Amino acid sequence: MPSPALIPPASNTLAFPTGGCSASRCGASANQHDGLPEETMRKVQDHPCYSEEAHHHFARMHVAVAPACNIQCNYCNRKYDCSNESRPGVVSEVLSPAQAVKKVLAVASAIPQMSVLGIAGPGDALANPTRTFEVFAALQQRAPDLKLCLSTNGLMLPEYVDQIAAAKVDHVTITINCVDADIGAQIYPWIFWRNRRIQGREAAEVLIAQQQKGLEMLVARGILVKVNSVMIPGINDEHLKEVSRLVRAKGAFLHNVMPLISDPAHGTWFGLNAQRGPTSEELEALQDACAGDMNMMRHCRQCRADAVGMLGEDRGEEFSLEKIESMHIDEVAAMQRRIALREAINADLQTKRAARHAQVITLHHRAKPAGRPVRMAVASRGAQIDLHFGHAKEFMVYEVDAAGHRFIGIRRAAQYCGGETDCGEAETTLSRTITALADCEVLLCSRIGIEPWGKLEAAGIQPNSEHAMEAIDTALDEVWQTMLAQGKLAEQARNGQRRA
Ligand code: CLF
Ligand code: SF4
Questions:
Q1: Is 340 part of a structural domain of the chain?
Q2: How far apart are CA 50 and CA 408, in angstroms?
Q3: 53 alpha carbon, distance to own chain's centre
Q4: What contacts 140, CB < 8 A, 6 or more positions away?
Q5: What does the alpha-carbon distance between residue 244 and residue 54 come to, in Å, rounded to a whole number?
Q6: Are residues 185 and 295 in the same domain?
Q7: What is the three-state SS of 240-276?
Q8: Is 71 in the pocket of ligand 2 (CB under 6 A)?
Q9: Angle formed by the axes of helices 157-166 and 129-142, to 10°?
Q10: What gap in Å lies between CA 290 and CA 245, rounded to an integer?
Q11: pLDDT 10s digits, 305-341
Q12: Where residue 72 falls among pLDDT bands split at 50, 70, 90?
């Protein structure tokens, strides 16, 4: 249990409606945005991590300027990027601040959807404050339309909150894995604090106190805070519900519960000691349990510290230092292009949101709509169904019913069709994908081969490529309506295939 001092007074709470649409359940994106104060909406609407809707339309990039770290997490091996925000086992090349600024301006001129620049490693952004703030200061001057974002373990946060606010950083992620020092001692073997290394429970106590103080100070300054938590079965899984309640009460905007990825090949303490990560069912169940108190992020891709592009894609190779040297960049023209595109996308989304809301209100005033919810998996690069089944590395899973659709999460699958892959390997990959999508009844993609089609169908997952290149939200609703009209959605649960 946290000490009573950690429980905040109610007045500390930043107003955030958990369900703006009181009529019924809208699509997740509609729910998330409805009723937000205008200023918050402005900060969220084109940030791909803070808005599930925005992640289909806007890109982010990270610059790896922060190599050092001031704590040790048992799921981290310092050869790799910070696992608090990155997929373990990934190595990013460290840039100098000047190289980083150059790269940001090059990427932002080539990808007009880019709306956010984040610093998330490869160590901790605030263990490298000079480098981190140098990048932010330069971009504030040269690309002021970009949102600035940073991710930290929180140890040094209280010391830098004023500098963060002065740098116009609107979004901060703090990784908070616990609010109980006994649990913390199982996750953090040591921290480096006031010029000495401290260990065990004492280390966890300091870290937790700093994280909580930093969270309160950021909220008091109107900075949006996302809390990342790594779910470690048997250590903090049950406890994260309490973490969620507490950070919500203190005004955090969003909670991102990420799975521990534990592999002996990564050489982490947890990996070498057979600490397992959660299954996708366990992760989704915890996210659902936390969602009662908190707005949950479910579309995190555990990006690299040098990620470039839409969430889920990595275009880093297009922007090597060598390549950007030869690029011609007109910073002002590029900024104008970004601003114009952003305005057009946001106006379009606003219109769609209003239409969805009107539809939900209409449904609410009719008799309870018939038809059970259906889970559908989608292969996509962004907002449309534009990906071949065999090229998808991941699938977005939605639950669809008469009131709209709700984003459930990302299911990773190795690519079925790798070109060079032999058939035996492809077979294994397909079986893994079928297992990962076992709770889905429909799979939407732009194309699919006959063989995987047959195997998916035999497993009770109906492939559908009729909606290729259509918007995901429209296609989901149309497929559900078609199933309803075909009499497939009687209220009883589907043939034992559903997980929950
Ligand atoms: Fe980067 Fe993080 Fe900012 Fe996003 S990522 S610093 S908040 S701009 Fe996003 Fe990537 Fe998940 Fe992070 S999907 S790992 S949550
Ligand atoms: Fe590794 Fe990040 Fe933890 Fe530091 S904060 S030990 S870089 S996971």
A1: no
A2: 16
A3: 11
A4: 148, 167, 168
A5: 23
A6: yes
A7: HHHHHHHHHHCCCCEEEEEECCCCHHHCCHHHHCCCC
A8: yes
A9: 10
A10: 8
A11: 888 989 888 888 889 888 888 888 899 999 999 999 9
A12: very high
Domain CATH for 463 = 3.30.420.130
Residue 341: name the closest of 63, 34, 57 by CA.
57
- Give the Å distance between the CA of 161 and the centre of ligand 2: 20
Same domain, 320 and 390: no
Using a 10 angstrom Cβ sphere, with 0-12 exposed, 13-18 middle and 19 or more buried, the burial of residue 356 is buried
**Co-location of 318 and 387 in the same domain:** no
245-265, pLDDT tens digit by residue?
999 999 999 999 999 998 898
| Model pLDDT for residues 30-61, shown as the tens digit of each residue | 456 667 788 888 888 889 999 888 899 999 99
For residue 78, which atom of ligand 2 is closest to its CA? 1
Of 92, 303, 304, which is best to mutate to test ligand 1, by the most ligand atoms within 8 angstroms of its C-beta? 303
Dihedral angle over CA of 155, 150, 103, 116, nearest 10: 180
- What ranges in 45-126 are assigned the alpha helix state H? 97-110
Burial 403-429 (b: 16+ CB within 10 A, else e): bbbbbbbbbbbbbbbeeebeeeebeeb
Residue 335 lies in a domain: no
DSSP 279: P
Q: Is this model's pTM higher than 0.90 or not?
A: no
The domain tally of the chain equals 2
Ligand 1 pocket: which of 46, 47, 49 to mutate (most atoms within 8 A of CB): 49
Any ligand 1 atom below 6 A from CB of 121: no
Which ligand is closest in space to the CA of residue 81? Answer: 2
Domain that holds residue 378: 371-485
Distance 153 CA to ligand 2 centre (A): 7
From CA 42, how far away is CA 280, in angstroms rounded?
32
Average pLDDT of the chain is 85
Q: Please report which ligand is nearest the Cα atom of 132.
A: 1
Sequence-distant (6+) residues with CB within 8 A of 265 are: 89, 271
CA 150 to chain centre: 14
Output the CA 208–ligand 2 centroid distance in Å. Answer: 15
Q: Locate the DSSP E strands across 357-494.
A: 374-378, 394-401, 404-412, 442-444, 462-464
Query: Do 256 and 389 share a domain, yes or no?
Result: no
Please check whether residue 48 is in contact with residue 116, taking contact to mean a CB–CB distance below 8 angstroms. yes
Quick one: DSSP state of residue 224? E
Six token digits for residue 422: 């032999």
Residue with tokens 């946290």: 2
- The separation between the first and the last C-alpha atoms of the chain, rounded to the nearest angstrom, is 30
- Single-letter code of the amino acid located at 48: P
Percentage of the chain exceeding pLDDT 70: 85
330 lies in a domain?
no
